[in-house]
Each structure stands twice: as C-alpha cells, then as structure tokens.
Amino acid sequence: MSTPEGNALEQALRLAANEPAHRPAFFNLLLDSTVYVLGDAGDGWIAGAARHDSEQPVNLQHWEKPDGTSTIPFFTSLEALQRAQRQGDYRPQPFLALPTRTLFAMTAGAELFLNPKLPYGKEFGPDEIAALMMNEGDALTEREILEGEMRITLSDTQEKPAQMIDSLTRLFADVKQVRRAFIVQVRDDPREDPHWLIGLECEGNEEAAIQAVGRVATDTAPDEQPVDICLVGEDGAGISHYFIHHITPFYVRKWGSWLRSLHDNAPH
User: Fold this and answer.
1) Deepest in the core among 82, 99, 168, 171, taking most CB within 10 A?
2) What is the pLDDT of residues 45-79, one digit of tens each?
3) Partners of 13 in the β-ladder
4) Where in the chain is CATH 3.30.300?
5) CATH class of 142-247
6) What global pTM score does this model have?
C-alpha cells in the first residue's frame, strides 16, 4: 500500500496540476517529502534504502525525452515508480529513497521529472529547483529588466489567465512552429497596472505564430487586459533570458510544465 506521505504528495500534485492556487502547498510538501529515484549508491547499497547525504555519490538513472534530451525521473511513492516502470518493458530495477532536498542538492544543474509516464507529472528545470531551494518552496520570481533604455518589471504570478492558457494550448496543436510558450505579468511604469506578456520560442514562420497567438490572446484576456507578445531564444538577453532561464513554460511541444495524460509522450 502507498505510504500516507506518498498519498498526500500525489494528491497535492493532482490538485496543483489542475489549479495554480494549490501549487504553493504542493511545493512546500514536496520539499519536506521523501521521494523515490531509480539508481543505486555503488558498492554496498541496499535497494530502497533511504539516503540523506547529498555529497555521498549515487548512480541515478536518466530517461530520454521525446526531443532527445535527458531528464532524471523521480517519484512520489514506490508504487508510482513501479507503475511508471510497467508502462514500458517492466524489469525490476534498484531504487533509492531520498529526501527531496537531498535529491535536488545532489542533482543541481540537471533537469528532473516527477512521475513521468503517469497521469500527473511535473517537469523541474535547474532554475526552478534553485528558486525552490533558495526561497523555501516559493518558486515565484519578480525581476527588473533593462530592455533598451527602459526598465520594466516582470513577475511570474501564481494566478494566470486560465482561459487564455487553455485556448493557446489548444491553438498550439495546429501552430506547430511554437516550441515553448511562457507568460508573465509586465509593468512598464510603476504607476500603471501590470498586463500580460507572452513569450514564444519558435522554429520558423514566427510572424504567423505571433498573429495567431495575438488573436487568441486578445479574445481570451481577462477583463480585456492588454497582451504583448515577444520572441525568446536560448541565446537572447534581457526579457528573452529571463523567460528561458527563470520561468517555467505553460506550454512545451510534446511536453508541459504541469502534465496530464503523459502516456503518449513520456520519456523512455
């Protein structure tokens, strides 16, 4: 049977995946939980043994994502780990039980994925993990960016426009050139109310993507708020760098920040 902690963490993950208001509680619970990873601790390790020392070397298994990059899978419970293994060629493999903080510390700089191949999962980039560890469960960020000669404030807020994000996610099923999409609030003037800024990482035909996104975002913006759109990329500076390195995308082609129904596009 699942441990009470595993049940609580999995329930928190399900709630957070469906409603942003539950995400702070999920992050706090995750940091205080024990999670399960595929791997071993070298000579003398015991399958399933708990480890607490982030400096003690361990061998962790990496899984390949559909885009060819790798991620380290970890799981809310032993039962979740075993369910994920059964999605492919099931072969019992060694695993370790680790406090989440220990896992995050020993894998600093890597990408991790919670509960891949299961109905609910969460991808964690290196910057998001660093923010969680530094801010004790608060992954939200606010930063001033100098863009040209103008200083603007960008903030990753907890409450995002759900209808806009849902409609844009559906749009991206047809607008194939969008690789990732981000959304933050932007304030050009401290005396004015913030508005939404969508960052698009595209591969070809950027103008068509901007036009399509602009139409949908304008139609679905809450209270007819203004919406700006910008292009972002790995090598960009200013706003682009902020999006790529500090914000979790709300849409990733074949992936997602908060994932549901992963059976068709889980890592392997």
Assistant:
1) 168
2) 433 444 445 455 678 989 888 777 889 999 999 99
3) none
4) 142-247
5) alpha beta
6) 0.55
